[in-house]
Design brief:
By secondary structure, the chain is α+β, with helices and mostly antiparallel strands. It has one domain: Pnp Oxidase, Chain A. It contains 4 helices and 7 strands, in the order H-E-E-E-E-H-E-E-H-H-E. It has a 7-stranded antiparallel β-sheet with strand order 2-1-5-6-7-4-3.
Length: 147
Amino acid sequence: MITLAPEEADFLRRARIAHLATASADGTPHVVPVCFVYDGRHLFTAIDGKPKRVPRGNLRRVRNLRENPRVSLIVDHYEEEWSRLRYVLLAGRGEIVDAGPDWGHAWELLRQKYPQYRAMREVGSGPIIRILPERVASWQAGRDWVS
């Protein structure tokens, strides 16, 4: 497990969207935008009840995680004023969680962060992707570092 700098953790808690990268067993990448929460140890994103073209269990990200648990998640901030650009990139292991304490904890955090989840009928019924970050890289305009 890694420890994030306080400004990295704060950035993750405030961010509204991230991009989740998974890869199949043969290394074919797949990236999707996701809503997410960070609880200080794990990142969670839901396989929620929004309409999908395939059943939730057949989504590419779910199939990829079953074949290859390596994931990356990037949270970035863009503005036309480039002095405000920044990102936090996390790499680690992801897994599907269908029940248990982390599943309920994740759904509660998602409901708190996103009013849309509070309004959805099926919230709390789908699986969660739990990510344990093992590496972090971050950058912010105006700083001379990348961690």
